Amino acid sequence: MPDLEQARSLVRSGQFEALEMLYNSVPGVLSELIRTAFIPKEGFKFIVADFSAIEARVIAWLAGEAWRNEVFATHGKIYEASAAQMFRVPIEEVTKGSPLRQKGKIAELALGYGGSVGALKAMGALEMGLSEEELKPLVTAWRNTNPNIVRLWWDVDRSVKEAVKERTRTETHRIQFEYRSGMLLIWLPSGRQLTYVKPRMGINSLGSESVTYEGIGATKKWERIESYGPKFVENIVQAISRDILCFAMQNLDKAGFQIVMHVHDETVLEVPLGVSLQDVCTLMGKTPPWAKGLLLRADGYECNFYKKD
Description:
Helix content: 40-55%
Largest sheet: 6 strands, antiparallel
Number of helices: 12
Order of helices and strands: HHHEHHHHHHHEEEEEEHEEHE
Strand content: 15-25%
Number of strands: 10
Structural class: alpha+beta
């Protein structure tokens, strides 16, 4: 909502008739105001800071996808750059709101972890104006543009299978995989590990060999779950992103900042009015020592109540 301040003021003062008259859906307004119930104490403000394209940066770093790392080292416009690479046009032609940028954005959001036509549809590709005939060529164009990310998926797939089959330890792309005591352990660059219970080789729903393990499935019950290279890569990238957030939070804490909450890749700080947003973003954007070469950037905003930017 663009006028959160006004809606909030009407609710606070009990002017419910005005609220009903000005807005189509009062429950919708109230749901948008839930965040704004969080406020800083008097004489303080919130600084909300989060990472720019954290998963896209981590997967590019892991895979060694040079053109993507170059984007993050310069202008950072990954949707525009992706479209320019996929459709072989100058990046200047990919403007905000243009169909090419829309295709670049939906491809980036849907295809990084092995997704295909179904993933594009789930992300709303058809609602965004893409036709059914455009979807498969879009998948092909994205994968051709990102061969090192595609290679990462299948290198991880092979390493996981070898670790489970041979009851051994394998390694690829800074990640180690180990079968130990009935568990598959995936060692992250930070030193933390992901654990998969009772892994074994099986046949997946497509009739191909894959690794399965026990866990909480879509039905919220304990069951055997199928996985494969791109899905393990998703787990790894999101886990590394979590470790980067923890590193940033430790840096902010050591610098004396009061973290009042964190949401996904976002930290919310309660700070005196004179504190600089840039100082917070600079601290958050520091690369951990275990992620040499990873290019990070944090952005943020100031507010008198918690909200989305």
